[in-house]
Amino acid sequence: MDINKIVSDAEKVITEVIEKARVKEGSLFIVGCSSSEVIGNRMGTSKDGETDEVVKVLYETITGHLAEKKVDLAVQCCEHLNRAVVCERSVAVKYGFEEVNVIPQIHAGGAFAVKHYASLRDPVVVESICQKADAGLDIGGVMVGMHIHPVVVPLRLENKHIGEAIILAGRHRPKYVGGERAVYHADL
Fold first, then answer.
1. How big is the CA angle at 150 (ends 105 and 62), to the nearest 5 degrees?
2. Is pLDDT at 45 greater than 70 in this prediction?
3. Which residues have C-beta within 8 Å of that of residue 177, sequence separation ≥ 6?
4. pTM for this structure?
5. At 89, is the secondary structure helix, strand, or coil?
6. Could you tell me the sign of the dihedral formed by the alpha carbons of 96, 97, 99, 104, in that order?
């Protein structure tokens, strides 16, 4: 595991996603991450502590870029918590998300969600973010698309991996309304 390559990959990916998704201040951004996949293991199979350094550098890289843009971050837990989402209480209040009573753990939530929960001032877990994310990053095939607004446009990325994990990303596009006479805003 080359930690410098993982940092470099993460820098490239998050920069590209922010640019291509046109992420703006105040947006809600969802991340799902399998740290096991990043180091070349199957999702959920790494031993306790095996991905600690990877999670730390990935988290710092991603949150650093999103903080610069003043973007709200939500982190998806694994399927053992039904893909519940960790966010700051202020974000949950802002969007009207309902809190659930659970604290993510390494094998029930995932290492990246545990890191996010521990890093927040006032963390909460919500069952759903009700398709309110404006964009998202899926590290290792964890399926974050369900959290993005109903019309999700996949982003075609030049940077397709962080470590060994496959990267998928998407952004919200407003729904097209009208018919054959309608004219649409190209920048959306």
1. 45
2. no
3. none
4. 0.89
5. helix
6. negative
Distance of alpha carbon 13 from alpha carbon 160, whole angstroms: 8
9-41 confidence digits (pLDDT tens) = 999 999 999 999 999 999 999 999 998 888 877
The amino acid present at 173, given as its one-letter code, is: R
148-173 as b/e, with b when 16 or more CB fall inside 10 Å?
A: bbeebbebebebebbbebebbbbbbe
Q: Class of 3-156 per CATH?
A: alpha beta
Which SS3 state, helix, strand or coil, does residue 148 take? strand
Domain residue spans in the chain? 3-156
CA angle 60, 40, 106 (to 5 degrees): 55
